[in-house]
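Explain this record to help learners:
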Amino acid sequence: MGRRIFAVGVAVLLLLAGTRGVVSAQQIAGGVSFLTESNETAVGVSGDIRQHWFSIGSHLDFGIVVDGGYHKFQGFSVISGQGGPRITWQGMSRVRPYGQVTAGFEYCHLCEATNLVTEPNVGVDVPIGGTKFNVRASYGMRSVWVNGGTFTEHRFWLGVSLGR
């Protein structure tokens, strides 16, 4: 199962990287992620695409991000898709921290239910061998809105990103 998850993640990144102009105006990222719900942690893949929107000065970049993931728990899996604004600090050469707030959906296969999710998220890109290839670490606290209430999931992912 782990190999299939990895293969799907790599395939998505290759498809995104093959899109014309993706590196010049966008940033793409993907990696292995861990989603913790109650006392169980699922392993999966996460990825995102960020489109530059505007900048303030030479250091503060505003963009729109679309984020997605697949996570396999014991006995069930979830697929999520979200979007929202991202602010990236471009003022340091060794790290590029960012913060984002996204909203979207999470589909649970076992429950056959789609629920609203919101997720504030922080992360950092560390440039490797130049300015466009980065190692990424990210953490988000996701609220899943179910039947008038919410529960919290924590998502941590490690991966790579391409672009500034």
About this structure: The helical segments are 2-17, 22-25. The first helix runs from residue 2 to 17.
